[in-house]
Amino acid sequence: MFVKSIALQHYRNYEGLRLENLGDVNLILGQNAQGKTNLVEALYVLAMTKSHRTSKDRELIAFDAPDGAAHISADVTRKYGDVHLEMTLSAHGKKAKINGLEQRRLSEFVGSLNVVMFAPEDLEIVKGTPGVRRRFLDMEIGQVQPSYLYHLQQYQKVLLQRSNLLKQLWNRDSGREMLDIWDEQLAAHGVKIVRKRKEFIKKLQVWAESIHRGITNGGEALELLYVPSFGSREEEDEAVLLDNFMLKLSQTREQEIRRGMTLTGPHRDDLSFFINGREASVYGSQGQQRTTALSLKLAEIELIHGEIGEYPVLLLDDVLSELDPYRQSQLIETFQSKVQTFITATGVEGLHADKLKGAVLYRVRGGA
Ligand code: ATP
Ligand code: MG
Q: Which NCBIfam families does the entry mention (predicted)?
């Protein structure tokens, strides 16, 4: 897919911006704090309906927005035709339109534009907390499978209700039968989430391993492993998953009541990375961890292509100049002429200039 134009209004430090005739490779240059990340973030928000760096939508609205709202829109060429996408963010929530038609559910809007973002904070996917990895899985699976987002939302609702009930049960005996009902609902949505995550990781593994071998000159074998809070690490069918989930819930019920929280389920699961059999978060060097994150992102591009038959748009925020020339050319060559790319940098130093010939250049200063 290809983004032909973008328009922003009162988005972060952009009062108004319109970019047309975007290129295959777009190089966005500017000093610190001028609006480079804000620009690629806006594309990410249009694709995912949330930012990659904050969960608070109000931070995205310009401080002095006259109507208290931010607007993002883009014209996107897709395999099946051109679409005009619009999003409005305000204190009243978010609205999204496709070709002028307001979408009833945001989860159905997700996927109208597909992006893969690679930013410095992605190193956290390898070395950060399990929550970062779960968010990575949720965002990436959600953008190719709207039904995943549905189950995730339902799961989170049930989880909240169930945890509230657990807290009340600490000092009273009545109300335990309600817990059985929540258990069933929790498990029903939970197994869908776990099954889709395992499926996703298995597919991602195939690409990530081969890309990682390429980047490391064949020297490193990368392995991805789902770490569940119930059942086994292998793929299991839904009936088996359901049995295992229910079993674990019954085994830990007393402990859950004592602690007032739900201890089993996809909200406690994790993903680990192994390089040549050793856990990357523990034994990996900074460079190995960075390369792992890069392999993952590149694998995602192929995976999305496999799922929807089109390449997503690649957003590289501040990361190209961090890579050595070999990794830079691997990155650019793999996707040249296949994947539209937006690259931000503070200057051309450290960039592999040869490879960027033909890029459309934008200079950003103070949100203009
Ligand atoms: P760096 O090279 O340091 O990464 P950048 O060009 O990527 O810089 P951005 O993250 O895009 O910088 O931020 C640019 C500016 O936007 C910052 O100075 C920030 O204060 C400002 N900003 C952030 N949120 C808002 C907002 N809601 N309204 C107005 N300005 C904002
Ligand atoms: Mg930035």
A: recf (TIGR00611)
